[in-house]
Amino acid sequence: MTSVLGPYVEGVAAFCSPPSRATSVSINCFAKNLQASPTILSPRKCRLPSLLQVTKTATKDSKKDVSNTTTKVSSTIRSSQPTQTPSETTVEKSSTATKTVSTSEISKKSSIDNGNKNEDAGVVGNWEYLHGNWVLRPTFAGEIPGVDDFDIDNTQPRALIHFLGGALVGKAPHVTYRYLLENLAAEGFLVVATPFDLSFDHLTTCDKILTKFEAVAPTLAKQYGALPVVGIGHSCGALLQVLISSLFPDTPRLANALLSFNNKPVSEAVPFFEEFFAPVFSSLAVGPEIGGSGSSSGDAATPPKRGPSSNDSLTLGLKLAKAASQGNLPSDELLQEAQSVFGSGFQAATASLPIPVPPFFGNDQDQSIKIPTEIRETYAKWAEPSITALSEAGVLPIIHETIVSLEQIPKLIDEVAGGSRDFNPTPSSVRSAAGKAYRPRRTLIVGYNDDPIDESDEIEEVLKEARSITRMRRPMVEIDVERKVLGGGHAAPLLAPPLDVAGRAEDLLGLETSQERLGYSEAVATVEELVRWFEEGNL
Question: Does an H or E element contain 457, and which?
Answer without folding.
Answer: helix 456-473
